[in-house]
Amino acid sequence: MKEGFSVFNNVIVRRPCRAMVEGITSNPQLGKPDYEKALLQHDSYIAALKECGVAVTVLPADERYPDSCFVEDPAVITRKCAIITNPGAASRNGEKDEILPAIRKFFTEDQIEYIKSPGTLEGGDVMMVGDHFYVGRSARTNEEGIRQFIAILEKHGLSGSEVTLEEVLHLKTGVNYLENGNMLVSGEFVHKPEFTQYNRVEIPEEEAYAANCIWVNDTVIVPEGYPAVEKAVRSLGYKVILVDTSEFRKLDGGLSCLSLRF
Ligand code: GLY
């Protein structure tokens, strides 16, 4: 794959807050997250990232924003610039102001861009493939947000394109790129023409949640408890680290949602 990050050196995460039990969910039947368990799972997530050779910046819990541990949504980081998004979920919109100080530790002002209203965009809708960024048009990311995002990418010599989605929360809920041409696809993304050029690994419906794996420096972190996905990722030749994310799943959150990797 041309350009893009060949290695990640840094990751930003935010500790879950007690208010996470009031986070947004489309799966209330899974119950409320157990906060203490979520903290332990978050510890394991940080340990897994460190094992992949990255420095992890851990931001403190922010009780004002129940979903703020899903730090992927208020910013997108490319190898040329960082883009502060404008989250489409009203209860999450203020998270963009809280991620900015952390971004400023790594990027100069001329490298920081902003999605502005009426544009909305959440990082969970952005999938990086080298220097190209697929952007899901979802309930959280609108046409104007995508237009601004692609214009920012092009200003920095990068590119982007829109992908429509109907069934899932974010683009990366159902499709994730593992580098080396390999892509995990589930549900509505299995037959998307945009992705036929990749080595698509189809995730069985009963393990669809685990389509959200993350590549970190040739290791793939896979949610624990999804044997078909674990086997498929191992058979692609990656080292695998399993991390239990059961409490984040209760809030529609997955492995990618919990960090910014760059
Ligand atoms: N609960 C994560 C989200 O809805 O953004």
Task: Describe the fold and architecture.
The chain is an alpha/beta fold and 262 residues long. The protein has helices spanning 35-51, 95-104, 143-155, 171-174, 227-235, 246-249; strands spanning 10-14, 55-59, 75-77, 82-84, 112-114, 126-129, 132-137, 159-164, 175-177, 182-185, 199-202, 214-216, 219-223, 239-243, 260-261. The protein has a 3-stranded mixed beta sheet with strand order 2-1-15, with helices on one face. A 3-stranded mixed beta sheet has the order 3-4-5, with helices on one face. Strands 6-7-8 form a 3-stranded mixed beta sheet, covered by helices on one side. The chain is globular and about 45 Å long. 46% of the residues are buried. The mean pLDDT is 97. Glycine binds next to loops.
